[in-house]
Amino acid sequence: MREDQRSSIGIALDSGGAKGGAHLGVLQVLEDNDIYLDIITGSSAGAFAGAVYAAKKLGDLLDIIKDMNLRESLGYYLDPVFPTSGLLGGKRVRTFLEDLFGDLKIEDLAIRFVAVATDLLTGETVVIDKGPVVDAIMASISMPGIFKPVIHMDRLLTDGGVSDPLPVDVLKDYSPKLSIACNLHPSLPSRFNKKQRERILKTEKSVLKQDIDFASVISERLIKFMDSQQILEGIRPKVVSIMRKINSTGEKIKEAEFVNAIQEQIRSRKDKLKAMLDFTKEENKDMLNIFEIMAISTNIQQYQKNKLMLSIIKPDVVISPEVDYIGTLDFTSTMHALEIGRKEALKAIPSIKRLIEEKGI
Question: Which of 127, 139, 161, 343 ranks highest by number of CB atoms within 10 Å?
Fold first, then answer.
């Protein structure tokens, strides 16, 4: 790398969904202490936080989220689609990002910024250091199974956390004199206390004893509920009755009578529909849902990846906010995560300032 491209201070920001609010607090504290960054590399939530800071949009973002409730939070990203490649289409997220960043390009940002994504077809880590900020963030935050993959740079891209959740390796490529990492997964997930773990285990054991395969049961009940043959058999008498009403002049059957026949069949099947919904009863509240299982699994994987990455490439300073108990999509906790990030960053300031002096930055 040419000397004029060499950065003085750089930071790598971890992935982590709503946990990424901690990055905002870390970045705030660095600036408050006159520690100015020359390069930011970020994966997923880290890419979003890094772009916000590099674009000097932190104040605008905080104005939006400081009083956000659950309903408003969901409204920014909840646009369900038929689950082919993802449960959510991402259109609302893109609209939110476009409102925040407009048509800004990475090349126009005040600080050098690099987003990290993953090529879903090759498994490669993809570095995005130019082009529209919104496109880069969308590619980096598209959590597999939750958001549909994004086509960008002629690649099918998914969340950067899949291949490189804490991109200190990418940061190293820019040869900063002082490197900082903000690790949101410093320990294994400890979201559940002992009593909660015992309740969950008890519930899961109970389900196993009953030999209940949740997905299979729901599928079977749904198929039976929507069984077209049974519905046809049910409305056959009504159809015959209607057909007899057609006179020789070819008078058309009234559509309302067909609708009534089908409605009668649906009403008669309400018991089966109720059975499908019984899985949401209070007695099953301790069962882990699919989103929780996906999030917990991802957090475990990211902990292991970060642990390995930090053992191979050692940044000068590692800031590790303890935010593992914050849900991946719990964006109502962003301000809480921000405060935790601030507290951890403040602890690191003396070490950072000492290194700045030692390295002559």
Answer: 161
